[in-house]
Structure formats: structure tokens, C-alpha cells
Amino acid sequence: MTETRTTEEAPATTSPSLLEARDLHVEFPSRGRRARAVDGVNLAIGEGEIVALVGESGCGKTTLARTLLGLERPTSGEVRYGGAALDYGSKALKAYRRQVQLVLQDPTGSLNPRHTVYEAVAEGPRIHGLADEREVVSTALSRAGLRPPDRFFLRYPHELSGGQRQRVVIAGALALNPRVLVADEPVASLDASVRGEILALLLRLRSELGLSALVVTHDLGLAWNIADRVAVMYLGRIVESGPVEQVLTAPRHPYTQALLSVLPESPERVVLTGEPPDPTRIPGGCRFHARCQVLASGRAAEAGVDGKCRSQPLDVLPAVPVAQAACHYAEI
Questions:
Q1: Where are the domains of the chain?
Q2: Does domain 17-234 have CATH number 3.40.50.300?
Q3: Which of 228-232's residues contact partners 24+ apart within 8 Å by CB, and which partners?
Q4: What is the tens place of the pLDDT at every residue in 188-232?
Q5: Hey, which residues does 209 pair with through a beta bridge?
Q6: Is the pLDDT score of 16 beyond 80?
Q7: The model's pTM
């Protein structure tokens, strides 16, 4: 986490929800059981707002993102866009995916090595039958910072740097003029010197185009630098959320505290024991209690909440802009 945030000015007030998950559950069959990959999530992204979704690998972040994109159907609950429940009919879903676009973490894997930059960016406009294809591609490349755009038309992915490839992926999303970007680890595969450029690009797109974004990441430092709000996910559920400065400077949930402790600026390192539990066997009580440093240290017992931690489930957090944490110890 850096000393000063690199964000451009964030929206002054909370915007109406543009994209929303309401009591979302997504389950998959797994060895004769049901894996609860997303187990009750409320999450809202306002117009012009950047929300960071943070957590360890396997916590359900990517499944939640795919469900918000319409690539997975919820077992229960719903995705809402512009105030209306998502329609999974093929025509409606095609229109929706023009509005909500995915940016993948690995530009090398998401770009066809046999396609030129022009073909890669033009693919979406061709699927959706947009007119003035050349102009659409040129504008998208320019907005993504590849200028002059025609200099890149006939290049292939292997002729570009990692940062340029990620800009091509972003241009492919921008070509459809979306309102929301869902970026899954957008800078994870990039060198440190390029990461800041891509983050600055996402912020500039928010400022110039009014884009909203959900940024999926395991990196709380990235969340600090780009997001207005942060949602921390553990074992299929959001356990803490709120304005990024408030959550990351005064985290209330022990899991958030542990994630923050790996940053160089942290005064104390918290080492979590074990791995996240099997999503087919979610523990009773607080789902984090088996790994919780507050419970293990005896502080929860001193506060008289250790029994609750082991046996009493916590309510699903609502989609509200204020800071909140699903933790018995934090509630005292």
C-alpha cells in the first residue's frame, strides 16, 4: 500500500446501483456434494464507481465475477443491471454483454496469436454488427493509449510488450462502448513498471467515459490505488466492505487484517494457519473461525465471543456504502 493514492477524484456521492448482486448463490456439483462457490453475496457497483473485490485464491471471486457477467447462472438470488433483473435469453444476454465487458488477467492467453491487433479489437464489433468498424477500432485503441492506432493495426501479439498487449485487451472491451468493466487481476501478469500505467489508464477511462468497474484482485495494494470501495471475500461470502480508505486503514475483520499484514508497510505479520476450508464443507459458526488469529490468541475468549465464533453463523452483509464487517469480535 502506497502513502498516497493515485486515483483521480472519486465520485463525491454514492451513485445509484448500476450492476448489483442480490443474495447471490452459485453452487457446483463436487464429488457427490455441492460446492457453495458463492454463498450469499450482496454487492452493488454505482455509476462511475470502481469497486475492488479482494481475497485469496479459491474464495469465489472469479465465480462471482463470471456470474455478474452472465457467464454463470446463479443457483438462487439474482443479478440486476440498471434496476432490472438479468434476462438470460440469448438476445437479451447478447445486449447485456455489450454493456458489461470482461478484461482478463493474461493478455497473452486471451489474444489469438494468429490475429492482428485490428482483428482482435474488431471481433466484438463484428459480433454485434456495429457500423464504421475501422473508426470503432481506431477510437478504442486510442482510448486504450495505443497511438497512433493505425500503427498497431497489422501487428501481432508477439510483437507487442506485455503492457501493450493488455491495452489491446482493454481496447477490445472499449470497442463495444460498455458501461461496466469487470477486470480479473488486470495487472497480475505485468512487470511492476507497467502496472501503474494500466491502473492509471483504468482511472482515466472512468474519468473520461464515466465507466464503472469491478476489479478482482488478491492485491490489497492495488485496491488502495484504484478503488473507491473494497469488498473482502472469504469462502464464498463478503466478510468486510466499505470505502477503501476506511477498510484498509482500519480493518475490522481478522481476515482483512491478515491480508493487509503481508504488505511491506504492515507493522505486524499475521500468518494464517491451514488452507481455506472445502466449499462443500463450510464450517458452522463464523466460516473463518478455524483460521482466525483473534480466536487462536484467546482475545475472542477474553471478550466472551469465542462460543459465538464457533457456533453462531453471521448474517449476510447488505450492499451498503458504509464500512461493515461480518465478525462477532468486531461487533463488540
A1: 17-234, 245-325
A2: yes
A3: 228/7, 228/10, 228/11, 228/49, 228/50, 228/51, 229/49, 229/50, 229/51, 229/52, 229/321, 230/51, 230/52, 230/53, 230/54, 231/43, 231/51, 231/52, 231/53, 231/54, 232/54, 232/55, 232/256, 232/259
A4: 888 888 999 999 999 999 999 999 999 999 888 889 999 999 999
A5: none
A6: no
A7: 0.92
